[in-house]
Amino acid sequence: MNALRELPNKIDRIESIVSLLESSEIQLSEAVSDLRSFQDEFEVNPERLEQVNARLSELHGIARKHKVKPTELIQVIEDLRKQLSRFQNSDEEIEKLQRMRNC
Prior knowledge:
Layout lengths: L1 H40 L4 H20 L7 H30 L1
């Protein structure tokens, strides 16, 4: 008899659980749909991927040549520009000194 009396309470709990599961199913379905839309926005372009990989490989090769990490290449470029500027200025200085000597 007690089992029969508790049956309505158990049915209410089961209905509540079923309601939660149905709500979860709807949310999961929406999440899957959103993820698929998000994935579609990021289609991989094989040609572009190949270009990026080639460029990265080139940068790593240049970094090895200069015995630095790829992240340090910007500093190497700045140092080389400074050296080039000094060399260009030294040519101008030499020409200036030669003109002064010839006068």
